[in-house]
Specification:
Distance between the termini: 42 Å
Biased composition (Basic and acidic residues): 77-86
Structural class: mainly alpha
Protein name: CopG family transcriptional regulator
Number of helices: 3
Oligomer: single chain
Shape: extended
Order of helices and strands: HHH
Region (Disordered): 58-86
Helix content: 55-70%
């Protein structure tokens, strides 16, 4: 079986819940994460899951929007300062 590594962002609370649940099941958190993913993929189309997906998508869009606004504000409000590489 070939595998592809994907990176996902979790909130601190989500990561902690995953670690705790995995520890309680005495399995690595990566195994639990994959099991949850397999389960979720099998439930695509389920109304309850679709609601969770929409909630996560909205949260993602909001986060991206805030990040873009912050970057734009920093770029334009600091336009008199020369760009420096660290």
């Amino acid at each position: 079986m070939s595998a592809t590594r994907l990176a996902i962002s979790l909130t601190d609370d989500q990561a902690q819940r995953l670690r705790v649940a995995a520890a309680e099941a005495n399995i690595p958190h990566g195994v639990l994460g994959r099991a949850l993913l397999v389960y979720g993929l099998g439930k695509l189309g389920n109304e309850e899951l679709e609601a969770v997906i929409e909630q996560e998508a909205a949260s993602f869009r909001e986060s991206r929007s805030k990040g873009g606004k912050t970057a734009t504000a920093n770029r334009w409000h600091n336009k008199d300062e020369p760009h420096q590489k660290e």
